[in-house]
Amino acid sequence: MSASPTTPSEPATRERLVAAMTDALQRRGLHGVGLSEVLQAAQAPKGVLYHHFPGGKNELAVAAIESSVAWLLQALDRLVQRPGAHPVDALRQWVSTAQQALERSGFEQGCPLATVALESTPGDLQIRAALAAGFAALRERLAALLAQAGAAPERATSLATLVVAAYEGALMQARVAGTGAPLQQTADVLLAMLAAELPPPPGA
Amino acid sequence: MSASPTTPSEPATRERLVAAMTDALQRRGLHGVGLSEVLQAAQAPKGVLYHHFPGGKNELAVAAIESSVAWLLQALDRLVQRPGAHPVDALRQWVSTAQQALERSGFEQGCPLATVALESTPGDLQIRAALAAGFAALRERLAALLAQAGAAPERATSLATLVVAAYEGALMQARVAGTGAPLQQTADVLLAMLAAELPPPPGA
Question: What is the ipTM of this complex?
Answer without folding.
Answer: 0.93
